[in-house]
Input
Amino acid sequence: MSTTVTSQSGAMLDATAAAGRAALIGYIPLGTPTPDLAIEAITAMLDAGADAVELGVPYTDPGVDGPVVQRAGEAALAAGTRVRDVVRVVEALKAHAPAAPVLVMSYWNPILRYGVDAFARDLAGAGGAGIITPDLIPDEGRDWIAAADTYGLDRVFLAAPSSTPERLRITAKASRGFVYAASVMGVTGTRATVGAAAERLVADTRAAGADHVCVGLGVSTGEQAAQVGAYADGVIVGSALVKTLQTDRPWTQRLDDLQTLTAELAAGVARSRKDA
Amino acid sequence: MNQPDHPVSDALTSTLAHQVLGKLSEQPGPYFGEFGGRFVPEALVAALDELETEYRKALDDPAFRNELDRLHREYVGRPSPLTEVTRFAQHCGGEAGNRVFLKREDLNHTGSHKINNVLGQALLVKRMGKTRVIAETGAGQHGVATATAAALLDLECVIYMGEEDTKRQALNVARMRLLGATVIPVQIGSRTLKDAINEAFRDWVANVETTHYLLGTVTGPHPFPEMVREFHRIIGEEAREQIQERIGRLPDVLCACVGGGSNALGLFNAFLDDPDVAIFGFEAGGRAISPGEHAARFSGGSPGVLQGTRSYVLQDDDGQTLPTHSISAGLDYPSVGPAHAWLNDMGRATYRPIMDDEAMEAFRLLSHTEGIIPAIESSHALAGAMQVGQELAAAGKRDQVILINLSGRGDKDVATAARWFGLLDDDAQAGSEGDQ
Output
């Protein structure tokens, strides 16, 4: 991994490691249910113990997302959420919690349309940490790799259980901050168990040169967070958190539900290394 | 099919690759100019690499080619005939002596060109040792062809189809089920072809060890655009030989409809390096060329990434995919194969929209004048040929020969046509509602 630029998420992961635990990274889509309410939700999540934010950009064709995130994206788009809303949401989150890295997770076309360099510039200007790119592999990422260098952003590429050692080397080399290890072959969504493939993938990705590896896909409980946190630098939780915002309950109660789950997950990562 | 060597590394830019190979018809993936590539989750890269390796090995393997040739001959009924349509030609500048020929892909087993690609990929599936195929379908033609090949080769088959399309093409849904396939109506997004493709990709990521995604057109991530072209290039190669036998020269004009663009590229490919042959692709103009009312990527689209490849995309200012409309489910798609984007930008092919009503008029006309009921998709090519033929005549050109790819037959579209033209008696109308 390139170390010429200070990585916000790398620094955060070093700090949690020094504290003897894995990090908790929570995913909430921009505009769930509106950009302003998403700010409320994400700040509530940070207050309840999340270490970093993965801010999803809604997209009409979310090819690697399961039903929960698909529904959230459809609702966000129907509510008029725009890609440019990323800037003010990141600014608001950084004002609330300056130490928490905010990574944008976006399918590639919205960023391409915004302009890769312009998006990187505006995200960096707002204090954002970097971009997670679920449908961009390093092979197609030349413009983004250059823009991330220019603006000092983290490039989080994905690794999968199907990745060959050669692919893991390419991914580790191109990434900065951390590599996102997809725990299973499949789309986002909660699962009863996190695949055994995840632990092996984390080890293989580290062996391929990654400084930090965080695991996503399928984690929904404190118990799972503790299991994954025992071997990963960070635990990424998405659909389970988003679900708490998709109920019929009054908004303040949904925020309570979100905080309750976040606290459970945070307790899970906090004991992850001690249980191990 | 003369398979080229592939001496050019993927690492080379396509411009350089093209300079090395020198022929548009042999352009290797992953890039077609600035288009193409692989915009996919990392989880699929290993499967795409395996597919590319196996496909290149297969094309060099005489046993594979012999088996595919045998199926083309004995199962599909290839070569498909070339039919001159003299009465229809009267509507294509016939007064100037223009002649019109149809490449009869509608006469293939399963009723369209789709079977060419499906059999090629299905044989690859057997070679790769996979046991399950999944596919998307819009009009149902690709789904029917895939279900057919799966039955023939004893593969488990799941077809994803937008719920909107399962209603428009109910008979094809029944056909696929009859062939033993599971048809899953997709109830998210716009509930059409692109959403079916999203679902197929989601299935593929989760089941890639046992499953092949039998993508039905010249789009998607590399190697699909190149590979599907290779399996359809037989259309143009046969047509080129047939037309020269018939008239002793090459045609002046090619016409094909373009959804993803597989039938069009299959025909065009054999003529790309003949600069005197004018090439026209016809997209779905729908009700109007305004957002949400059409699927004409080269009229209202711009370069972008959708479903694994960079090409022209109908999108808004945020890069969100726009809804589309076409009376033809098979052309109702917001992007197009990257090779078409490349041919458009270099000016080698011209792409024009054909409106719903123009396509339906051509549908009626071919049925009335020639006794051939075309697919509504193919009717866009027929309507385009009428335009181009009349324009050439008006410009003083004479004796132009127009070759149209009649990519599919219209059996599946009879209910749509019956409603459009009011062909059913009142009491029969009620009975047709199930097949919308």
